[in-house]
Amino acid sequence: MAVSLVALTFRPIAAADLPALADLWHEVWASGHAAFAGPELTAVRTPERFLARLQPFAGKGLIAEITSEIMGFAYWNGAELDQFHVGAKARGTGLAQKLMTEAESAMAGEGIASAFLFCADGNSRAYRFYEKLGWRNAGLESSPVSDGVGGRLFIDCHRFVK
Prior knowledge:
This protein is of the alpha+beta class.
């Protein structure tokens, strides 16, 4: 059963949200990215590492929630939309489009006129979503991603710009 967006709200990420966001991010990553991630990246994508990576997000970004249940989140760092995730319960409901609109508006409110994001090579569902919302695929490049403990791994990603 799909969730209803009638009670959808957006708010900044709070420190108390980080454990729930780590669980959501891990679920989204496992269902949408693990299939085309290499073994080195898969090995470091644990819930604990997602929680460690989330620490700087408190007080920034946006949470999408319905009746106090977190359904998705967006986080940006300057002009980079660094993280954008919607949980399985909310997929296909229109929540992702609304969250993207809110994130783009908040970024514009911070003076960001041109934004970019990276989408892992092979994530065709995400490509279609970004293109549908006006993001342009600027090509494939090797992008650094956090290993969750201060290191970096490089994966092939498409850079989308808007």
